[in-house]
Amino acid sequence: MARVxxxxxxxxxxxxxxxxxxxxxxxxxxxxxCLNVNENPYPPSEAVRRDMAHxxxxxxxxxxxxxxxxxxxxxxxxxxxxxxxxGGNQIWPANxxxxxxxxxxxxxxxxxxxxxxxxxxxxxxxxxxxxxxxxYVTSPRDEYFGLDSARVLSAIAESGxxxxxxxxxxxxxxxxxxxxxxxEVCAGTDALVVVDEAYQEFNDTPEDSAIAxxxxxxxxxxxxxxxxxxxxxxxxxxxxxxxxxxxxxxxxVRLPYHLSATTQTVAQVALRHAPEMLARVDELRQTxxxxxxxxxxxxxxxxxxxxxxxxxxxxxxxxxxWADFLAHGVLIREVGPEGYLRVCAGTPAExxxxxxxxxxxxxxxxxxxxxxxxxxxxxKQVRISSQGQS
Length: 390
Ligand code: PMP
What we know:
Number of helices: 11
Strand content: 5-15%
Bound molecules: 4'-deoxy-4'-aminopyridoxal-5'-phosphate
Shape: globular
Largest sheet: 7 strands, mixed
CATH superfamily of the largest domain: Type I PLP-dependent aspartate aminotransferase-like (Major domain)
Structural class: alpha/beta
Oligomer: single chain
Radius of gyration: 22 Å
CATH topology of the largest domain: Aspartate Aminotransferase, domain 2
CATH architecture of the largest domain: 3-Layer(aba) Sandwich
């Protein structure tokens, strides 16, 4: 048997702020229906896979060499996909938008600097801050999970934030922040404004993007990803779009050769198939709208979403309901404001399985009291007819 050193984590000289921390991540379980991490449920098509295989086979002969450190080809292709007249010198790709965000904080956050986000929002943000020694503060969204510029600007003033992060559409609520609001925020602050548009392609008006504001604001960064719309979560490619000077700052902190040659190639092939990918996005947008309507019809509170997922509830004991879904082979996410669960748009078969599970699981689920002002009994049960209504 291999001999392993028995040292424990507690005996290691871990950075104090990491003591007691757990590695982040949603449960990765072997379950028939996975609707828990906002992935695109459709694998890349046969044609895309064939092109990827060809491109990688061709490239394999050069894998003894380091990749293009500047990812010039991929940046040019991303610029073409994005439009808005942006050039490759305004794009910075990395291993998922996770890495892009970390690089942004490595360059613009750090000791003595503060990152501000608006909750409820993406649960990874505090981790990016912790890992880059950036102070992390939050300010609440309004009762509909929305944001207006007065709210954002007063939170910036109060927190003295150096970096402000607005997620649009927001995870886990699906709420979009209009570009007009971002415009007013940028006009009203010297802080760096980062807009996380990971789910922008799923927005009903995807062209309403903060990228349109880049010519006006040098301290604006828009972050996007190929993980969702391009069905490439396993490929790990996210990117920043910003003024060339911002990109230069990110280039200072990146590790040399941070983006593998295979990653760059796979992303370039995916981008060549953009029309096909975006047709799938249209389909998923419709699926999300149908799921939203179906859940409402069945008496749930559903947060209006501009993304590929929905928050629905509100359950008195959401953990028990989540576990019951799991027992029915459907993995969803226990996340976000009290009483809600999050589900993402799946294939028709996955949606059927989810809706079937809803009818089973939620038949007797006790719901939370409605907010004051709504005349609904506090012991309201979900209205589910035994026939279902799909
Ligand atoms: N931003 C938001 C709002 C997200 O929900 C996610 C993924 N769940 C990411 C960023 C990270 O995406 P990736 O690292 O796969 O690009």
